[in-house]
Amino acid sequence: MIKKMGIRWNLRRLMAAKDMFQTTDLVPLLAERGIQLSREQVFRLVTQAPQRLSMDILAALCDILGCTPNDLIEVEVVNAEVRKTAAETSGPAPAVRRTSIRRPEGL
């Protein structure tokens, strides 16, 4: 059995609790802590869970929001039980298509 894990990214909720409703509110606060991100990067950071996050950014966010990493990131089980069967792991072999390359006449 395989457990499918996911995360709940709580940055937007924690920002709202600190009366920060614009994603751009974070830009100068991050810069004060040595984190230089564009407005677009901060927007993505706030609106969607990051796949990768540097420890420096995580530490800066925790400092800005007065929280811990556990407040920002909640690990959750998406599918409690995902059972792989032989049929799922090895489907039919892809069809093989033979191709021939022909030279143009006269070469």
Descriptive report:
This protein is about 40% helix and about 15% strand. With about 110 residues, the protein is of the alpha+beta class. The protein has a single domain (about 1-85), classed as Orthogonal Bundle (434 Repressor (Amino-terminal Domain)), CATH 1.10.260.40. A two-stranded antiparallel ribbon has the order 1-2. The radius of gyration is 24 Å and the shape is elongated. It starts with a strand and ends in an 18-residue tail after the last helix. The relative contact order is 0.22. The mean pLDDT is about 85.
CATH architecture: Orthogonal Bundle
| Largest sheet: spatial strand order | 1-2
Structural class designation: alpha+beta
What gross morphology would you assign? Answer: elongated
* CATH homologous superfamily caption: lambda repressor-like DNA-binding domains
Q: Can you count the helices? A: 6
Instruction: Give the rounded overall mean pLDDT.
Output: 86
Task: Supply the number of structural domains.
Answer: 1
**What value does the Rg take, in angstroms?**
24 Å
Q: Tally of extended strands? A: 2
The helix content, as a percent range, equals: 25-40%
**What oligomeric assembly is this protein in?**
single chain
Question: Helix-strand pattern, N to C?
Answer: EHHHHHEH
Largest sheet: 2 strands, antiparallel
- Which stretches are low in confidence, meaning pLDDT under 50 for 5 or more residues running? none
